[in-house]
Write a sequence for this structure.
């Protein structure tokens, strides 16, 4: 009898499908926003991007996130040069974005219209040293370009082989749902993924966006998953530091939530950041969080969060402390059949239906 050796699967090699597509991606997406020097005063210095990228790939990772505007194009250039050195372009799933202007004093160098989309993709391909982009996001909704123009332009890029999948970031739920419907009826590529700000300290996406993503079978690829560091313990009461990401202060609710995170982290002998990330992976199964890091040690810490299982009591503490007011109509009719106090009445109280919670 021959002994067999079971090869251990790398932690990020437990791939999942990206939304309604057949594309396999890692359970953590590596955010590359800080790679480059142009935004160093804002983002701080990232001294080891290649080491972080190599560590990510060694762990089975294949999903990289960036944008044309990040570090004024330097981020894409760094990724392109790294892929050229490693010869691993086909292995990587490259996600980038367009919308923000890259040329000054040019009214058409910004926005979601066809001209800017096509020129942005052309320039991203050059910087990335590749002939295709795996996943192209609208970076921000511009409230001017017709949805039909965006989706038809996406279709043309996919048909030309320059883009494989299309996505939206920082866009209202109704726009994405409408875009998906138009694409389905026209035979155009449907939306594969969505990026928005979502974390234990900011669950407002649960009002409209997350129910929409589940209904449309769109992958949830959130940014800001560590809450701009609000719950790591580095901010104490009495401090009001300026925090990036549109949030400028810590509230008493944030401090109370941080206290709970710290308590659970100490009991499990892990870091606050790992608890925050583990909460998301437990609370929203199938979510593909974007994690950014300055060192390989931080990346390894994030990866270890995949193994943390929070029990029901711990999840309840975190959920209760971070709960967000869902607003109308959800505070009136709920978000599921079982939550709806209006439908189940006059003899229908005992109706049983499959009921998948949307929060």
């Amino acid at each position: 009898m021959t002994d067999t050796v079971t090869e251990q699967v790398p932690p990020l090699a437990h791939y999942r499908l990206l939304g309604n597509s057949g594309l396999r991606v890692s359970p953590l997406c590596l955010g590359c926003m800080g790679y480059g020097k142009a935004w160093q005063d804002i983002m701080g210095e990232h001294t080891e991007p290649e080491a972080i990228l190599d560590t990510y790939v060694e762990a089975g990772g294949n999903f990289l996130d960036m944008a044309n505007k990040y570090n004024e194009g330097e981020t894409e250039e760094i990724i392109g040069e790294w892929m050229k050195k490693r010869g691993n372009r086909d292995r990587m799933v490259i996600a980038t974005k367009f919308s923000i202007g890259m040329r000054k004093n040019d009214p058409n160098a910004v926005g979601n219209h066809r001209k800017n989309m096509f020129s942005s993709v052309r320039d991203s391909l050059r910087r990335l040293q590749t002939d295709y982009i795996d996943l192209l996001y609208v970076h921000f909704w511009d409230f001017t370009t017709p949805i039909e123009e965006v989706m038809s332009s996406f279709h043309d890029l996919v048909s030309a082989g320059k883009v494989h999948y299309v996505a939206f970031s920082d866009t209202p739920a109704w726009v994405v749902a409408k875009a998906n419907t138009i694409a389905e009826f026209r035979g155009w590529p449907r939306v594969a993924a969505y990026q928005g700000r979502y974390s234990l300290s900011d669950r407002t996406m649960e009002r409209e966006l997350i129910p929409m993503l589940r209904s449309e079978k769109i992958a949830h690829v959130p940014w800001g998953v560590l809450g701009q560091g609000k719950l790591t313990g580095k901010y104490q009461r009495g401090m009001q530091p300026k925090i990036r990401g549109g949030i400028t202060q810590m509230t008493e609710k944030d401090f109370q939530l941080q206290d709970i995170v710290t308590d659970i982290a100490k009991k499990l002998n892990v870091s606050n950041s790992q608890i925050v990330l583990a909460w998301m992976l437990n609370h929203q199964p199938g979510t593909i969080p974007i994690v950014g890091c300055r060192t390989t040690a931080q990346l390894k810490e994030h990866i270890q969060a995949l193994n943390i299982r929070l029990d029901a009591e711990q999840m309840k503490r975190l959920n209760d402390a971070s709960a967000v007011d869902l607003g109308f109509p959800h505070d009136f009719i709920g978000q599921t059949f079982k939550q709806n106090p209006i439908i189940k009445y006059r003899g229908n109280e005992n109706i049983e239906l499959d009921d998948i919670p949307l929060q």
User: Anything to note?
Assistant: The beta strands are 16-17, 24-25, 29-31, 63-65, 93-98, 133-138, 163-169, 191-195, 219-220, 290-291. The longest strand covers residues 163-169. Residues 252-268 form the longest helix (17 residues).
